[in-house]
Fold these 3 entries.
Entry 1:
Amino acid sequence: MKKILASLTLGVLLLPIAVSAQLDWGEGQIGVERVLNNAINWLFYILIFAAVIVIILAAYTFLTAGGDPDKVKKARDYILYALIALVVAFLARALVDWLLEVIGA
């Protein structure tokens, strides 16, 4: 099961790069910067979507905990990890945008 999930995850993460390489944007050649920017955007949105799913899963775990301290702790950990992932995603996106502005791309 882990191999299937790993291969599906890898396929979803590589899909934007493959699609960007095949699209004709009307400008002739597609630059490496544009493909990387598209891949970064896709990864950002996938991470945001995954964090929302984890928060929903944590809410469900809270609701079904029934007072079990282990399940409550597990749900709090889910929320903490999702929030950390969101902060890292936004900081990484801001860092990439800042670097592109600095180098003038």
Entry 2:
Amino acid sequence: MINLIAEEILNILPANIKNLVSNAKGDGYIQEIRIKSDKPLILIYDREESITDYIVTSVDIRNIMSKMMNYSLYAYDEEIRQGYITIKGGHRVGLCGSCILEGEKIKTINNISSLNIRVSKQVIGCSDKLIPYLINNGEIENTIIISPPKCGKTTMIRDMARNLSENFKVCIIDERSEIGGLSLGKSSLDLGIRTDILDNCPKAQGIMMAIRSMSPDIIICDEIGTFKDMESILTAICCGIKIITTIHGKDENDLFERPVFKDILKNNAFKKGIILKGHEVGQVSYIYDFDSNKKTWEG
């Protein structure tokens, strides 16, 4: 099959790479385009990896960087410092090169040698079948989505935001610009009419900012894992705000085995766990109920 690659991605690629990607044929759709100076261009599909014959040059990488930043380095300085740039459409481009330090902090990244373009896909409706299982007496229950990488956690919570914003005020804390895919303050994704986004904002700080200023019914964030994250989540719950979030893991036992989740579990913060499986977005293994400690629905 010929891949249909988003125009936003094709627009930043040099002509030779653009033609190769546009006409690539593989098993499934392209998920990543891995670009490394003096190495073969690699395409990652749903179920396979394709190492092409094309050798990437440093000029290719410089051209891509210039197009991504619209020839304005300053506008993207903060993103570069964190190792990525988000382009229109919510596609995130990871960067590797020489880190310039200022004290113990990274000031910027120079001499970019590798790029990883992660293709963002919005799957409208992938959360439809789950929402009824997460609502109790008209309110969403605090929910955590658990799955290995590349199983669609972010895609799922993005669609949940769209779905839930029909009836609730939603605030997304988007630490790595993955959920909302903002580029220069704008998103081309459908996140619903009542959804606000705090972009490029640390989760713990963003949750507290949302509580103070946006009065959301639901806060959505991705990949929690620090004690500060847990503190802010408990604060939000004490304020009557519902939480939907994700972690990397195999199943609910990963929460029980991690010390960082001790207070969350002790306080019965999460009511439902959604365990994803496979590499198809929205493929749910089961829903776990933390109050009864059992599965309540299996996909």
Entry 3:
Amino acid sequence: MSPVTLHAELAANLAEREARGLRRSRRLLESPQRARVTVDGRDYLAFCSNDYLGLAADPRLAEAAREGIDRYGVGGGASHLILGHGMAHHALEEALANFVHQPRALLFSTGYMANMGVVSALVGRGDAVFADRLNHASLNDAALVSRAAFKRYAHNDFEALERLLVATPARRRLVVTDAVFSMDGDIAPVATLLELCERYDAYLFIDDAHGFGVLGDAGSGTLAHFNIASDRIIYMATLGKAAGVAGAFVAGSDALVETLIQNARTYIYTTASPPLLAHALLTSLQIIALEDWRRERLHALIAQLRDGLAASPWQLLPSVTPIQSLLVGGNDETLALSARLAATGLLVPAIRPPTVPQGTARLRISLSAEHQAEDVAKLIAALVRHA
């Protein structure tokens, strides 16, 4: 195919996506990530980010980052296994392991890289991965890259999962799931999943990107929320959402972490993240643990929103987390509703396929401890007006 033909085909594909209401576009954020932002030259009240505890622009994290620069410089400079694993990374790994009550933790540059690294390091040909159909794309991609048999079951259909586990001849079985599903906001019933894993000799990989910092005692995550601990569980959480900075970590046994250091390609073959970020995250962990008022405000805002939209013609999906999804249905209708809100200074993203299943386009309302009750009241009033 000639370059001219290739570019013409790409342009046609983009036009088709545009016609179906599926083309995505980027906004330009001109301010810190807060409840009130400046985007494309205009001020908005935003319900868009995963900054659930309002820490992304916290001045204490900025000061810790500056201190990290003074101590360690800016770049990591090398991979962790060459000369990039610094004192800041080491201190953060120890603090994270303690925070989530696990023997050890291992830092990754992103949650996507953590999921890819873990799954491909632990399973391969002759093994099997079992995944909820609403899992994050990174878990699905990780399963495909691993070359293990990839089996998906309908969301929270544990009878279907059990049938798959009964039927598999796989040597090693790995069940992978979001802890808090990123587009619906519901929490996986971890106890049920763990019981199935125990019964059928499988391991359970929990992606707690949206539960860490928000759920559990002192914000230590979904496992603490359910008071669950097991050697069969492999735990991952991200550090760019509630923690307000960047990166991810995997926690578990010493044998698990050592295996990932030796075999996780997304850990081995990448430059270590800037140590200043690890240093800032040490302060973030202290704030998460000590400032319970942030989670308390979130719970109050969630209850306010759900009460205020109880009579809405659109379905608010069941969720006790900061992710509150208002199911609208059609792509064009959802985009139009999001645009009407934006015109009144309210930024709420329209989420469409393939991120969510066909026919389930929605507004994904993300709440933050930075929001005030009057902010949520303003959003409720606007949605009621446009119903």
